[in-house]
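Example record

One chain of 156 residues, shown exactly as stored in the release files.
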Amino acid sequence: MSLLAAPEYNEGLEKLKRNLFIGTVTGILSLALLSFVGFALGHGWLFSNLPIEHKVNNFFVALEAKDYQKAYDIYTNGHPNSGYPLQRFTEDWTTESPIGAPILSHHVDISKTDGSGTFGSGVIVAVHVNSSHKLFMFYDRKDGTLTEPAPHILQY
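Predicted structure tokens for this chain:
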């Protein structure tokens, strides 16, 4: 074969190259779109905070159902804290609740990553409680526990 001779056209190889290019561009654009939409809607990059929002939602569902043992287990991530017994927890979330009344309804609004590191050391989750109060729960990524109040509040 001489230097000026063109290689024979291979239709299958060209289709493969085109499809790989289209697939790669589509994948990159989809990833970028999902990243932005998750962040813009307040659920973290690539919706990474959704499992944490689900945990906070389960916590409030247990409080509404007056299942304080389950709520305490979620709050402490199954590791009872001797400095914060179930009895004190029950008082804190009933008669001494942060909103001054029993929790009857809730809605998880948004979440924001907080702290240092790639995905932060924790997540702040904003929750509307009893349709009129905002609570900010802090999820600690290190041990999976919840804390109220959060280190700071979110503006949204």
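Notes: The CA atoms of residues 124 and 138 lie 5 Å apart.
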